[in-house]
Specification:
Length: about 1100
């Protein structure tokens, strides 16, 4: 048979879905296995479920062992003559377990494919080096330990019980061996490695696979027979004997004449020396580095071997940092002057061992202990060497004598230690929400990296999470450590009872296969620690804890409104679900936590059936609901800081409330019967008799307390439904007898020359008022415009025109821009547009359309603050005489309603504000060419963080016949109701804009090449609130908490409480994962 054809014919077919269906549909149907393996990057997608006779090879491919040929398709013995560049390893077994070879070949193919992919990607792009790193690497000659071994896919041959890999300068062979052992051993495994460069690190690669496969899947082979002899033994044929006897001895007699070193002898010798003596040629020492390369870590680069002269460490108790499993001890040390942590593997020393070297039992026990230590050392060191991630502890170096490795030293110790200290002063989230969010994200990022490498941590807990910094501005806060019991899954899961009780997933039981979801269960327990500061205690005995976990019993944390980290608590509960398939993947968790909603959403609190929602204007965390009227009227007080209803449906008879204001120790309430009741809060709840009652000419629609202008005094402004503003002077908590009124209609006509038939003269209710310019002014809504009150003179001095009728200003807030100067934002109810004014110059600086369904990263220009616009107020040929409060009389009658009489020298003007004007809407012709607008009027622009592209318009350009500042809808409803903004909230140095659909647009101002621009820095949307109805109102309480009120069709309210983040908090949040991603990219480039 031709060699190349033989290789092709007896390669395992990874079948297409049609051939796979034939093979699975009829087990006895012959299917010619002649298709070659997929090339690198090529995938096969059989649409079948994996069965017992299939083994996963890659994500969408399965190994079909029953289709493998029984023998290789070419003569492999001709190329396997022992030479001086050949070493062998033999595993003697009492029996070869069913399924051993199939699993072994699958594992080998996976590892070889990963190395092949690495070679393929290196050739494709040697500069960027975006390659998948395998956990194994083959090193070159012993002098420089540099890897030269690479596998090409067309040089791999495998059959039912064997595999052959050829490469430049050598080959690697693994096959079933039936050798006459002179005992009852039935067979075993024979491994041959040949290398012209004497690079035998491939032997370490193979033996690692064999040993890990036996430990995980076939642990019965590690037991002993009834007479005490092991069921499996390892032997190493002496390469010198093999070479010399191969020239003149018949191969069938070779086992009689070749010296076989027992692996136990090699291990015990390696503890003391680097070579072993063969009794057949004692004058020629055999180097152990070639004979058992895995013990000397020859597949590690030279740079990772510690120089013992530069390692300063002491094994005193004062230097001990902790103890690991199997007797390992971690010491504080210094290497090359830098602090490190040294993990020392202790090999037991038996008494009288030196005096009784022939004691077989003592020798076996010591060898077993040494082999276990070498195995654990190699397993963990190999894992650490292959893993390079910012959130995984880095390997500094290894040492064989003594057996140890050095790691990065965590300055603050373990997470458990830090939480124990911080939890003393806190009931929940002892590290604070921002640091907790970052730590949880970094843990998930490390887990996602491990799972991408097919590694199952198996022992995730707070003790194995090391803390580098508690500063939220630091890029890295924690790193994962201790991979002593981690498993590599090879797409088939893992076996073995590993982990710590309380963190161990319930599916980890003897002979039960598990996958990376066990790490997600442990991650849920770590989240519990982050939220509570306590260990997940469920008992003192492992069996007791395991039973509770399998029954679904979990540690008790508390309701979400008490914990106040809704998303993290929900993720915790999702991760510790009893069913693994319901737990999220680590990569999905990382993606989920990149949304700022995850960190800012605190909790939701159902409040039952209510009528009106009111918040406090001062530093308190209270919000109040009122419901009912007359005798059934009641109120509910919600403490948002504690997340509870402190007062529920407390009776307080009276008319239905229209608005309320809490100022100092007084509560001002306005009712629909045009009255104001003032309650004293010094006696706390319940509210009984009002301290004072005031009459108003119309229903009060909003209140505003103006900061103190004199000692123990302040002003309370009440906006009325007919457009008036009532001004009350309060001294020592009580209003005096005088009350003055500011008339919007009169000011519009006499001061700003707006005729009565203009739509702006309609009696619009006052919907919003805001203190501006450090308390010297109050801006309030008047239909589509804003009127400015001088607080000292109590006069309306200016009118601004942000919108055109029929739009009505519904929200006004004051905040600061990049230079610290005050700006005023306003929002209307029709155009759904934000308008920003510079408060000092009254200049319109920016507009932003809030109806974009995908507003994230939208940008809009903020024009420089220039001189005061010429047309605000609109100049008249003859300046009218200023109206004073003394020249205004207010009369009320049932027939005519409220009448405002302004007295002047030659005439008396009369206007009725009891009914809405029937005058047709009229747009005042304005010429605001100097007022800047964003492109295409109210369009919002997509902002790209990479290029700053602002070319995409999100709203069509309005007609040319409209003024630039007219943002009224073009045809009916120009946007969906759920995109309508409800209110503007000034939160620190940003503004939050809640929309009726429940999402919140967060806008910040930033400098860009010397100019300013506005940008949507976040869109907060809690899916948990979709069933709560429509967002009706929102407020900022205590300056750092945002409360949104939702009402459903049954008039039931629910509060959604958010952390009030400003620019600093959002910057820290975004940088936390952006910098982590940058560090990951840097590490990949260095690789």
């Amino acid at each position: 048979m031709d060699g190349s054809k033989g290789k092709l014919a007896y390669k395992l077919p990874f079948l297409s879905k049609n051939k796979m269906a034939k093979a699975l549909g009829g087990r006895h149907r012959a299917v010619r296995a002649t298709s070659a393996e997929p090339a690198p990057g090529q995938a096969v997608f059989p649409r079948v479920r994996p069965q017992a006779h299939q083994l996963p090879w890659m994500c969408f491919s399965y190994l079909l062992p029953h289709l493998l040929p029984s023998k290789p398709g070419l003569d492999t013995h001709g190329m396997r003559h022992p030479t001086a560049n050949t070493i062998q390893r033999v595993f003697k077994m009492s029996f070869v377990p069913v399924g051993f070879w199939q699993r072994f070949i699958a594992r080998m193919l996976i590892s070889l494919a990963e190395m092949d992919l690495q070679l393929f990607e290196n050739k494709k792009n040697t500069k960027s080096r975006h390659r998948k790193v395998t956990i194994y690497s083959f090193t070159g000659n012993q002098r420089n330990r540099c890897s030269t071994f690479r596998v090409k896919r067309n040089q791999t041959i495998y059959w039912q019980e064997g595999l052959l890999v050829t490469f430049d300068g050598g080959y690697l062979s693994v096959e079933s061996s039936d050798v006459n052992w002179k005992k009852k051993k039935s067979g075993g495994i024979k491994i041959i490695c040949q290398s012209e460069m004497r690079d035998f690190s491939a032997m370490a690669f193979i033996t690692d696979h064999v040993n890990s496969l036996i430990d995980q899947w076939f642990p019965a082979l590690t037991a002993t027979e009834s007479d005490g002899t092991p069921l499996m033994e390892q032997y190493v044929p002496c390469p010198v004997c093999e070479t010399s006897w191969a020239r003149h001895t018949d191969p069938s007699e070779r086992s009689e004449d070749v010296q076989y070193f027992d692996m136990e002898d090699c291990v015990l010798t390696a503890i003391e020396r680097d070579f072993i003596s063969c009794p057949r040629h004692p004058y020629i020492p055999v180097p152990l580095q070639e004979l058992v390369p895995e013990l000397f870590m020859t597949d590690f680069p030279a740079r990772l071997f510690l120089e013992n002269s530069k390692l300063e460490h002491s094994e005193d108790e004062s230097a001990i940092l902790g103890q690991g499993g199997s007797g390992t001890v971690i010491y504080r040390a210094r290497y090359q002057g830098q602090p490190v942590a040294v993990k020392r593997f202790q090999i037991k020393k038996f008494k009288n061992f030196a005096n009784a070297p022939a004691d077989t039992m003592l020798r076996h026990l010591r060898a077993t202990d040494a082999m276990r230590n070498f195995s654990e050392f190699r397993q963990e060191a190999s894992t650490l060497h292959a893993l390079q991630h910012p959130c995984i502890v880095a390997l500094i170096g290894i040492s064989i004598h003594p057996l140890c490795f050095a790691l990065e030293l965590a300055p603050l110790g373990s997470l458990n230690t830090v939480l124990s200290e911080k939890a003393k002063d806190s009931s929940f989230i002892p590290l604070g929400h921002m640091l907790t969010q970052k730590i949880a994200y970094q843990i998930a990022s490390g887990l996602a990296y491990l799972h991408k490498k097919n590694i199952i941590f198996c022992d995730l807990k707070s003790d194995n999470i090391l803390v580098w910094s508690l500063d939220v501005k630091e890029h890295i806060n924690i790193k994962l450590s201790d991979y002593g019991i981690s498993r590599q899954s090879f797409h088939e899961g893992a076996l073995g009872v590993e982990g710590t009780p309380g963190y161990q997933a319930p599916e980890i039981r003897p002979r039960i296969v598990y996958d990376e979801k066990v790490d997600m269960f442990s991650y849920g327990m770590v989240l519990y620690e982050l939220l509570s500061g306590q260990r997940p205690a469920l008992g003192h005995h492992q069996l007791q804890i395991a039973k509770k976990l399998s029954k679904g019993i979990r540690p008790v944390l508390g309701p979400p409104e008490e914990v106040q980290f809704h998303r993290l608590q929900a993720l915790m509960m999702e991760c510790w679900d009893t069913k693994p398939e319901k737990r999220p993947l680590a990569l999905a968790v990382v993606s989920q936590m990149k949304d700022p909603t995850f960190a800012t959403f605190m909790y939701q609190l159902p409040c039952g059936k209510q009528t009106a929602f009111f918040s406090s204007q001062d530093q308190e965390y209270m919000v109040v609901f009122w419901d009912g009227k007359e005798e059934s009227r009641n109120y509910t007080v919600v403490n948002t800081e504690k997340g509870l209803l402190e007062v529920q449906h407390m009776s307080c008879a009276g008319m239905k409330l229209s608005c309320q204001l809490k100022v100092q120790n007084s509560l001002w309430t306005a009712t629909e019967d045009q009255k104001i009741y003032i309650y004293s809060l010094k006696g706390m709840c319940p509210l009984n008799m009002p301290q004072q009652a005031l009459d108003t000419p119309a229903i009060v629609t909003c209140f505003l307390a103006v900061p103190v202008i004199k000692k123990n005094s302040y002003l309370v402004l009440a906006g009325l439904a007919d457009g008036l503003v009532a001004v009350f002077s309060v001294v020592r908590g009580a209003p005096d007898n005088s009350c003055s009124y500011l008339c919007s209609h009169t000011a519009n006509r006499s001061r700003f020359s707006i005729p009565d038939e203009d739509a702006r003269q309609n009696p619009y209710p006052v919907k919003a008022m805001e203190v501006v310019n450090s308390g010297s002014e109050v801006w309030y809504s008047n239909g589509p415009g804003l009127l400015v009150i001088d607080c000292m003179a109590l006069e309306i001095r200016r009118r601004l025109e942000p919108y055109s009728a029929p739009s009505v200003v519904m929200s006004v807030v004051c905040s600061s821009e990049c230079r610290g100067e005050e700006v005023v934002w306003c929002l209307d109810d029709r155009a759904n547009c934000l308008v920003m004014y510079h408060s000092a110059t009254y200049q319109l600086c920016a507009r932003y359309f809030c109806g974009d369904p995908s507003p994230l990263r939208d940008v809009f220009p903020v024009h420089p603050m220039g001189p005061e616009p010429l047309l605000s107020p609109i100049a008249s040929p003859k300046e009218p005489q200023k109206d004073s409060l003394a020249d205004v009389s207010i009369m009320y009658s049932e027939e005519l309603g409220t009448q405002i009489l302004t007295h002047q020298d030659s005439l008396t003007d009369y206007c009725s504000v009891s009914s809405y004007s029937s005058s047709p809407s009229h747009r005042v012709p304005t010429s605001l060419s100097s007022v800047p607008c964003s492109p295409a009027s109210s369009s919002s622009l997509l902002f790209s963080t990479d290029s700053g592209d602002t070319s995409r318009l999100l709203e069509p350009t309005l007609g040319s016949d409209r003024p630039e500042h007219d943002l009224s809808p073009v045809d009916g409803e120009a946007f969906s109701q759920h995109l309508q903004a409800v209110k503007i909230l000034a939160v620190k140095d940003v503004i939050w804009v809640p929309r009726r659909g429940g999402d919140i647009i967060v806008i910040g101002l930033e400098k860009d090449a010397g100019a300013q621009r506005g940008r949507v820095i976040a869109v907060l949307k809690a899916r948990e609130l979709t069933s709560r109805g429509v967002l009706m109102d929102a407020a900022v309480v205590a300056k750092d908490t945002v409360v949104c009120g939702f009402e459903n069709e049954n008039l039931e309210w629910c509060l959604a409480v958010w952390r009030g983040w400003g620019t600093r908090e959002f910057d820290v949040f975004y940088q936390s994962y952006e910098e982590l991603g940058r560090l990951e990219a840097c590490i990949r480039k260095r690789r």
